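U., I forgot to send this yesterday:
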Amino acid sequence: MKICAKAKIMNTFKELISHKSMDKITVTEVCEICHINRQTFYNHFSDQFDIFKKIFTQEIFVEIAQNKTFDTWHGGFLATLKYLKRNSKMILNIYYTSYRDEANIFFIGLSNKLLEDVVTECMKSKDIQLLEIDCRFIVNFYRHVFNGLMMDWINDGMKEEPETLLKKLQIMISGSIPRSVKAFADEEKLHWGF
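Result:
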C-alpha cells in the first residue's frame, strides 16, 4: 500500500526531528528523503514548523480527547505532559531553536482553546454568565499558570515525572476555577447589578 505524500512527509519529519535541531532540517532534505518535489511539499505544508504543528495537534488531540472538560481537565493536562515527555527529543529539538517563540505562540493558542472550553463548561454548570472580559481574564490567568509550568518543566529537561507536576498543580489550584467564576459573577452583580 502506498503511503500518501502528506503522511510520508510527517513521518520523515518526525524521524528527523528526533535526531537533530529544527534549525538544521530543510524542506529540501525532507523532499529528498520522501522522493517528492518541493511543490508536493508545499501542497501540504507551508514550512517545517507547519509539519510540527500538524503532527502535534493530531497526536495531542488523540491523547486528550476524553479529557477536555471541567471535571477531567487534570487528565488532559497529564496526557499533555506525558506526550511531551514521550516525545521529548522532538520537543527539545524545536524548543531550543529559532522556532522557540513560534512554539510558544502555538502552545498559547492550544491552551486558550482548551481553557475556554473548561471555563465555559464551569460557568454553565454553575448557571453563571460572565462578561466576556472577565471570562477572558480567567482563561488568561490559568493559561499563564499551565503554560508557565509546562515551559519551566521543558526548560528543566522534563526531569520531574508528569504525575508529580500534576499533583503539585492540583494542590495549588484545587477548586480555584469554580471559585474564580463565582467571585467574578459576584463582583459583576455588585458593580453592575447583573
